[in-house]
Amino acid sequence: MASSMLYGGQHLTLTPKGLGFNGSDLHGKNLLKMNLVGRNCNFRSKTLVVPKCSVSVPRPASQPRFIQHKKEAFWFYRFLSIVYDHVINPGHWTEDMRDDALEPADLNSRDSIVVDVGGGTGFTTLGIVKHVDAKNVTILDQSPHQLAKAKEKEPLKECKIIEGDAEDLPFKTDYADRYVSAGSIEYWPDPQRGIKEAYRVLKMGGKACLIGPVYPTFWLSRFFADMWMLFPKEEEYMEWFEKAGFKDVEIKRIGPKWYRGVRRHGLIMGCSVTGVKPTSGDSPLQLGPKVEDIETPVNPFVFLLRFLLGASAGVYYVLVPVYMWIKDQIVPKGQPI
Ligand SMILES: C[S@@+](CC[C@H](N)C(=O)[O-])C[C@H]1O[C@@H](n2cnc3c(N)ncnc32)[C@H](O)[C@@H]1O
Protein backbone atom coordinates (compact mmCIF):
# COMPACT_ATOMS: atom_id res chain seq x y z
CA MET A 1 0.00 0.00 0.00
CA ALA A 2 1.14 3.46 -0.86
CA SER A 3 0.22 4.66 2.60
CA SER A 4 2.37 2.27 4.55
CA MET A 5 5.26 2.82 2.16
CA LEU A 6 4.93 6.52 2.68
CA TYR A 7 5.39 6.07 6.38
CA GLY A 8 8.70 4.55 5.53
CA GLY A 9 9.62 7.88 3.97
CA GLN A 10 10.12 6.59 0.44
CA HIS A 11 9.63 8.34 -2.87
CA LEU A 12 6.74 6.95 -4.80
CA THR A 13 4.15 7.81 -7.38
CA LEU A 14 0.53 7.39 -6.44
CA THR A 15 -1.80 6.79 -9.35
CA PRO A 16 -5.32 6.33 -8.04
CA LYS A 17 -7.67 4.07 -9.94
CA GLY A 18 -11.40 4.72 -10.06
CA LEU A 19 -12.25 7.59 -7.77
CA GLY A 20 -15.82 6.39 -7.45
CA PHE A 21 -18.09 9.37 -7.45
CA ASN A 22 -21.07 10.08 -9.62
CA GLY A 23 -20.86 12.15 -12.73
CA SER A 24 -17.15 11.55 -12.95
CA ASP A 25 -15.15 9.53 -15.41
CA LEU A 26 -12.16 9.48 -13.14
CA HIS A 27 -11.06 5.95 -13.67
CA GLY A 28 -7.41 6.40 -14.30
CA LYS A 29 -7.85 8.27 -17.58
CA ASN A 30 -7.99 11.70 -16.01
CA LEU A 31 -4.74 10.98 -14.35
CA LEU A 32 -3.87 12.65 -11.19
CA LYS A 33 -0.28 12.01 -10.36
CA MET A 34 1.39 12.96 -7.18
CA ASN A 35 5.06 12.36 -6.82
CA LEU A 36 5.19 11.93 -3.13
CA VAL A 37 8.22 13.22 -1.35
CA GLY A 38 8.02 11.06 1.71
CA ARG A 39 10.14 12.91 4.25
CA ASN A 40 8.31 12.58 7.55
CA CYS A 41 5.10 11.62 5.76
CA ASN A 42 4.97 15.01 4.05
CA PHE A 43 4.52 15.11 0.31
CA ARG A 44 4.27 17.77 -2.33
CA SER A 45 2.19 17.82 -5.45
CA LYS A 46 4.55 17.78 -8.39
CA THR A 47 2.10 17.02 -11.17
CA LEU A 48 -1.60 17.48 -10.91
CA VAL A 49 -3.85 17.03 -13.90
CA VAL A 50 -7.17 18.31 -12.67
CA PRO A 51 -10.14 16.37 -14.00
CA LYS A 52 -12.69 18.36 -16.00
CA CYS A 53 -15.66 17.35 -13.90
CA SER A 54 -16.30 18.63 -10.39
CA VAL A 55 -15.64 16.32 -7.48
CA SER A 56 -18.14 18.31 -5.44
CA VAL A 57 -21.06 16.09 -6.36
CA PRO A 58 -24.21 14.94 -4.53
CA ARG A 59 -23.94 11.75 -2.53
CA PRO A 60 -24.37 8.68 -4.73
CA ALA A 61 -26.81 6.01 -3.43
CA SER A 62 -23.86 3.78 -2.53
CA GLN A 63 -22.42 6.53 -0.29
CA PRO A 64 -25.45 8.12 1.40
CA ARG A 65 -23.32 9.76 4.17
CA PHE A 66 -26.30 10.28 6.45
CA ILE A 67 -24.60 12.83 8.70
CA GLN A 68 -23.07 14.93 5.91
CA HIS A 69 -26.03 17.29 6.20
CA LYS A 70 -26.14 20.45 8.27
CA LYS A 71 -29.18 19.56 10.33
CA GLU A 72 -28.03 16.03 11.07
CA ALA A 73 -24.57 17.33 11.97
CA PHE A 74 -26.18 19.89 14.26
CA TRP A 75 -28.07 17.21 16.19
CA PHE A 76 -25.13 14.81 16.08
CA TYR A 77 -23.07 17.39 17.98
CA ARG A 78 -25.99 18.25 20.24
CA PHE A 79 -25.28 14.88 21.88
CA LEU A 80 -21.66 14.26 20.99
CA SER A 81 -20.49 17.57 22.45
CA ILE A 82 -21.23 16.16 25.94
CA VAL A 83 -18.46 13.58 25.61
CA TYR A 84 -16.51 14.86 22.59
CA ASP A 85 -13.27 15.87 24.34
CA HIS A 86 -13.18 12.66 26.38
CA VAL A 87 -14.28 10.05 23.83
CA ILE A 88 -13.52 11.29 20.31
CA ASN A 89 -10.23 13.13 20.66
CA PRO A 90 -8.27 10.45 22.54
CA GLY A 91 -9.01 7.89 19.81
CA HIS A 92 -8.65 10.00 16.71
CA TRP A 93 -7.11 13.38 17.40
CA THR A 94 -4.39 13.47 19.98
CA GLU A 95 -2.34 16.50 21.01
CA ASP A 96 0.78 15.29 19.19
CA MET A 97 -1.28 14.70 16.02
CA ARG A 98 -2.72 18.18 16.34
CA ASP A 99 0.72 19.76 16.61
CA ASP A 100 1.96 17.71 13.69
CA ALA A 101 -1.05 18.73 11.59
CA LEU A 102 -0.74 22.43 12.44
CA GLU A 103 2.97 22.56 11.65
CA PRO A 104 2.44 23.20 7.87
CA ALA A 105 0.08 26.09 8.74
CA ASP A 106 3.17 28.18 9.60
CA LEU A 107 1.68 29.84 12.65
CA ASN A 108 4.78 31.99 13.01
CA SER A 109 3.49 35.31 14.36
CA ARG A 110 1.59 36.03 17.55
CA ASP A 111 -0.13 38.92 15.70
CA SER A 112 -1.60 36.77 12.91
CA ILE A 113 -5.35 36.92 12.43
CA VAL A 114 -6.58 33.32 12.52
CA VAL A 115 -10.01 31.80 11.95
CA ASP A 116 -10.70 28.27 13.20
CA VAL A 117 -13.70 27.07 11.20
CA GLY A 118 -15.73 24.21 12.67
CA GLY A 119 -13.65 24.91 15.79
CA GLY A 120 -16.10 22.99 18.03
CA THR A 121 -14.90 22.55 21.60
CA GLY A 122 -11.68 24.41 20.79
CA PHE A 123 -9.33 21.42 20.84
CA THR A 124 -7.48 22.60 17.72
CA THR A 125 -7.69 26.22 18.86
CA LEU A 126 -5.72 25.21 21.96
CA GLY A 127 -2.93 24.25 19.54
CA ILE A 128 -3.30 27.54 17.64
CA VAL A 129 -3.08 29.78 20.70
CA LYS A 130 0.32 28.29 21.55
CA HIS A 131 1.61 30.34 18.59
CA VAL A 132 -0.90 33.18 18.15
CA ASP A 133 -2.42 35.59 20.68
CA ALA A 134 -5.90 34.36 21.58
CA LYS A 135 -7.42 37.80 20.99
CA ASN A 136 -6.54 37.41 17.28
CA VAL A 137 -8.28 34.07 16.94
CA THR A 138 -11.94 33.51 16.02
CA ILE A 139 -13.61 30.15 16.60
CA LEU A 140 -16.62 29.59 14.35
CA ASP A 141 -18.97 26.63 14.52
CA GLN A 142 -22.57 25.85 13.63
CA SER A 143 -23.09 24.07 16.95
CA PRO A 144 -23.74 26.26 20.01
CA HIS A 145 -23.31 23.13 22.15
CA GLN A 146 -19.78 22.57 20.92
CA LEU A 147 -18.94 26.27 21.30
CA ALA A 148 -20.23 26.23 24.89
CA LYS A 149 -17.42 23.78 25.69
CA ALA A 150 -14.85 26.04 24.01
CA LYS A 151 -16.05 28.99 26.09
CA GLU A 152 -15.20 27.07 29.28
CA LYS A 153 -11.52 26.73 28.35
CA GLU A 154 -9.27 29.23 30.08
CA PRO A 155 -6.65 29.67 27.29
CA LEU A 156 -9.50 30.50 24.86
CA LYS A 157 -11.14 33.17 27.04
CA GLU A 158 -9.94 35.98 24.78
CA CYS A 159 -10.88 34.29 21.50
CA LYS A 160 -13.90 35.53 19.58
CA ILE A 161 -16.42 32.68 19.56
CA ILE A 162 -19.21 32.84 17.00
CA GLU A 163 -21.89 30.66 15.44
CA GLY A 164 -21.75 30.37 11.68
CA ASP A 165 -21.61 28.19 8.61
CA ALA A 166 -18.33 27.08 7.03
CA GLU A 167 -19.88 27.47 3.59
CA ASP A 168 -20.90 31.07 4.18
CA LEU A 169 -18.39 32.70 6.50
CA PRO A 170 -19.26 35.98 8.23
CA PHE A 171 -15.81 37.49 7.57
CA LYS A 172 -14.98 40.08 4.98
CA THR A 173 -12.86 39.18 1.97
CA ASP A 174 -9.07 39.35 2.61
CA TYR A 175 -9.60 39.24 6.41
CA ALA A 176 -7.32 36.59 7.89
CA ASP A 177 -3.67 35.52 7.75
CA ARG A 178 -4.48 31.92 8.47
CA TYR A 179 -7.57 29.76 7.95
CA VAL A 180 -7.63 26.55 9.99
CA SER A 181 -10.33 23.90 9.93
CA ALA A 182 -9.91 20.54 11.62
CA GLY A 183 -12.29 17.61 11.35
CA SER A 184 -15.22 19.61 10.02
CA ILE A 185 -15.20 19.18 6.24
CA GLU A 186 -16.72 15.72 6.60
CA TYR A 187 -20.02 17.34 7.59
CA TRP A 188 -20.13 20.01 4.88
CA PRO A 189 -22.71 19.19 2.21
CA ASP A 190 -20.62 21.09 -0.35
CA PRO A 191 -16.92 20.89 0.57
CA GLN A 192 -15.79 22.79 -2.51
CA ARG A 193 -17.87 25.75 -1.38
CA GLY A 194 -16.28 25.68 2.09
CA ILE A 195 -12.78 25.69 0.56
CA LYS A 196 -13.75 28.54 -1.77
CA GLU A 197 -14.80 30.45 1.37
CA ALA A 198 -11.44 29.67 2.97
CA TYR A 199 -9.80 31.30 -0.04
CA ARG A 200 -12.05 34.35 0.05
CA VAL A 201 -11.50 35.23 3.70
CA LEU A 202 -7.70 34.93 3.53
CA LYS A 203 -5.43 37.87 2.78
CA MET A 204 -3.06 37.69 -0.16
CA GLY A 205 -0.21 35.38 0.88
CA GLY A 206 -2.39 33.90 3.64
CA LYS A 207 -2.46 30.18 4.21
CA ALA A 208 -5.31 27.69 4.63
CA CYS A 209 -4.74 24.53 6.66
CA LEU A 210 -7.54 22.02 6.42
CA ILE A 211 -7.30 18.84 8.46
CA GLY A 212 -9.70 16.06 7.64
CA PRO A 213 -10.48 12.38 7.17
CA VAL A 214 -9.15 10.09 4.49
CA TYR A 215 -11.10 7.40 2.72
CA PRO A 216 -10.70 3.76 3.85
CA THR A 217 -9.71 0.98 1.47
CA PHE A 218 -10.79 -1.96 3.67
CA TRP A 219 -14.31 -2.94 2.56
CA LEU A 220 -16.02 -2.98 5.97
CA SER A 221 -14.52 0.33 7.03
CA ARG A 222 -15.53 1.80 3.68
CA PHE A 223 -19.09 0.62 4.19
CA PHE A 224 -19.44 2.34 7.58
CA ALA A 225 -17.58 5.43 6.41
CA ASP A 226 -19.95 5.78 3.46
CA MET A 227 -22.96 5.43 5.75
CA TRP A 228 -21.67 8.03 8.15
CA MET A 229 -20.13 11.06 6.50
CA LEU A 230 -17.66 12.33 3.90
CA PHE A 231 -14.22 10.70 3.91
CA PRO A 232 -12.52 12.43 0.97
CA LYS A 233 -9.66 10.92 -0.99
CA GLU A 234 -6.35 12.79 -0.92
CA GLU A 235 -6.69 13.72 -4.58
CA GLU A 236 -10.11 15.24 -3.90
CA TYR A 237 -8.61 17.61 -1.32
CA MET A 238 -5.94 18.60 -3.82
CA GLU A 239 -8.51 19.26 -6.51
CA TRP A 240 -10.78 21.31 -4.25
CA PHE A 241 -7.85 23.48 -3.19
CA GLU A 242 -6.53 23.95 -6.73
CA LYS A 243 -9.99 24.76 -8.08
CA ALA A 244 -10.57 27.35 -5.38
CA GLY A 245 -7.41 29.10 -6.61
CA PHE A 246 -4.84 28.04 -3.99
CA LYS A 247 -1.19 27.66 -4.95
CA ASP A 248 1.55 25.52 -3.38
CA VAL A 249 -1.01 22.91 -2.35
CA GLU A 250 0.49 20.23 -0.16
CA ILE A 251 -0.76 17.28 1.87
CA LYS A 252 0.81 15.94 5.01
CA ARG A 253 -0.36 12.57 6.23
CA ILE A 254 -1.14 12.23 9.92
CA GLY A 255 -2.52 9.49 12.15
CA PRO A 256 -2.51 8.16 15.70
CA LYS A 257 0.88 6.68 16.68
CA TRP A 258 -0.57 3.32 17.59
CA TYR A 259 -1.91 2.80 14.04
CA ARG A 260 1.75 2.41 12.94
CA GLY A 261 0.92 4.11 9.63
CA VAL A 262 -2.06 1.87 8.80
CA ARG A 263 -4.56 3.76 6.65
CA ARG A 264 -6.78 0.98 5.30
CA HIS A 265 -9.55 1.72 7.83
CA GLY A 266 -9.50 5.39 6.86
CA LEU A 267 -8.76 8.04 9.44
CA ILE A 268 -11.01 10.67 10.92
CA MET A 269 -8.00 12.95 11.08
CA GLY A 270 -5.84 11.62 8.28
CA CYS A 271 -4.25 14.57 6.53
CA SER A 272 -3.41 18.23 6.77
CA VAL A 273 -3.86 20.06 3.48
CA THR A 274 -2.35 23.50 2.98
CA GLY A 275 -2.49 26.09 0.23
CA VAL A 276 -1.46 29.72 -0.21
CA LYS A 277 -3.72 32.46 -1.58
CA PRO A 278 -1.73 34.08 -4.40
CA THR A 279 -3.74 37.29 -4.98
CA SER A 280 -6.26 39.36 -3.06
CA GLY A 281 -10.03 39.16 -3.64
CA ASP A 282 -12.55 36.39 -4.07
CA SER A 283 -11.87 32.92 -5.41
CA PRO A 284 -11.86 32.64 -9.21
CA LEU A 285 -14.21 29.66 -8.85
CA GLN A 286 -17.87 30.34 -9.64
CA LEU A 287 -20.49 28.20 -7.88
CA GLY A 288 -24.29 28.18 -7.97
CA PRO A 289 -26.52 28.66 -4.90
CA LYS A 290 -25.86 26.77 -1.66
CA VAL A 291 -27.03 23.16 -1.68
CA GLU A 292 -28.42 23.02 1.85
CA ASP A 293 -29.42 25.38 4.57
CA ILE A 294 -29.94 24.49 8.20
CA GLU A 295 -33.12 26.62 8.24
CA THR A 296 -34.82 24.62 5.47
CA PRO A 297 -37.54 22.32 6.91
CA VAL A 298 -36.97 18.59 6.45
CA ASN A 299 -39.32 15.62 6.76
CA PRO A 300 -38.93 14.58 10.45
CA PHE A 301 -39.20 10.85 9.75
CA VAL A 302 -36.62 10.91 7.00
CA PHE A 303 -34.44 13.07 9.21
CA LEU A 304 -34.72 10.68 12.17
CA LEU A 305 -33.98 7.62 10.05
CA ARG A 306 -30.94 9.26 8.45
CA PHE A 307 -29.74 10.49 11.80
CA LEU A 308 -30.04 7.09 13.50
CA LEU A 309 -28.42 5.18 10.63
CA GLY A 310 -25.60 7.70 10.32
CA ALA A 311 -24.93 7.92 14.05
CA SER A 312 -24.93 4.09 14.35
CA ALA A 313 -22.39 3.83 11.53
CA GLY A 314 -20.23 6.32 13.43
CA VAL A 315 -20.01 3.88 16.37
CA TYR A 316 -17.81 1.62 14.19
CA TYR A 317 -15.25 4.41 14.16
CA VAL A 318 -15.25 4.56 17.95
CA LEU A 319 -14.28 0.88 17.94
CA VAL A 320 -11.59 1.02 15.23
CA PRO A 321 -9.00 2.97 17.26
CA VAL A 322 -9.57 0.59 20.21
CA TYR A 323 -9.02 -2.40 17.90
CA MET A 324 -5.86 -0.79 16.49
CA TRP A 325 -4.61 0.02 19.97
CA ILE A 326 -5.04 -3.62 21.06
CA LYS A 327 -3.19 -4.79 17.94
CA ASP A 328 -0.41 -2.32 18.67
CA GLN A 329 -0.07 -3.80 22.16
CA ILE A 330 -0.02 -7.41 20.95
CA VAL A 331 2.02 -7.34 17.72
CA PRO A 332 5.78 -6.98 18.31
CA LYS A 333 7.14 -3.53 17.55
CA GLY A 334 8.53 -3.08 14.06
CA GLN A 335 6.07 -5.58 12.53
CA PRO A 336 3.11 -4.46 10.40
CA ILE A 337 -0.31 -4.60 12.05
C1 LIG B 1 -15.12 16.73 14.71
S1 LIG B 1 -15.61 18.34 15.28
C2 LIG B 1 -14.05 19.16 15.21
C3 LIG B 1 -13.93 20.22 16.26
C4 LIG B 1 -12.55 20.86 16.40
N1 LIG B 1 -12.14 21.50 15.16
C5 LIG B 1 -11.50 19.89 16.86
O1 LIG B 1 -10.44 19.88 16.27
O2 LIG B 1 -11.73 19.16 17.82
C6 LIG B 1 -16.46 18.99 13.86
C7 LIG B 1 -17.10 20.33 14.10
O3 LIG B 1 -17.54 20.87 12.86
C8 LIG B 1 -18.74 21.56 13.10
N2 LIG B 1 -19.47 21.75 11.83
C9 LIG B 1 -20.04 20.81 11.06
N3 LIG B 1 -20.58 21.37 9.97
C10 LIG B 1 -20.34 22.71 10.05
C11 LIG B 1 -20.63 23.81 9.22
N4 LIG B 1 -21.29 23.66 8.07
N5 LIG B 1 -20.24 25.03 9.62
C12 LIG B 1 -19.57 25.20 10.79
N6 LIG B 1 -19.26 24.18 11.61
C13 LIG B 1 -19.62 22.94 11.24
C14 LIG B 1 -19.47 20.69 14.10
O4 LIG B 1 -20.49 21.38 14.78
C15 LIG B 1 -18.33 20.26 14.99
O5 LIG B 1 -18.16 21.09 16.10
UniProtKB/TrEMBL annotation:
The UniProt keywords, alphabetically, are: Membrane, Methyltransferase, S-adenosyl-L-methionine, Transferase, Transmembrane, Transmembrane helix
Provide the MPBQ/MBSQ family SAM-binding methyltransferase profile domain boundaries. 65-274
Q: Where is this region: SAM motif II?
A: 159-172
InterPro entries referenced in this protein's UniProt entry, alphabetically: Methyltransf_11 (IPR013216), MPBQ/MSBQ_MT (IPR044649), SAM-dependent_MTases_sf (IPR029063), SAM_MPBQ_MSBQ_MT (IPR031164)
Q: Where are the transmembrane segments?
A: 303-326
Q: Secretion signal: which residues?
A: none
| Key word Transferase present | yes
GO BP: alkaloid metabolic process; methylation
| Region spans: SAM motif I | 114-123
| Family to which the UniProt record says this protein belongs | Belongs to the class I-like SAM-binding methyltransferase superfamily. MPBQ/MBSQ MT family.
Q: What name appears for this protein in its UniProt entry?
A: MPBQ/MBSQ family SAM-binding methyltransferase profile domain-containing protein
Species of origin reads Lactuca sativa (Garden lettuce)
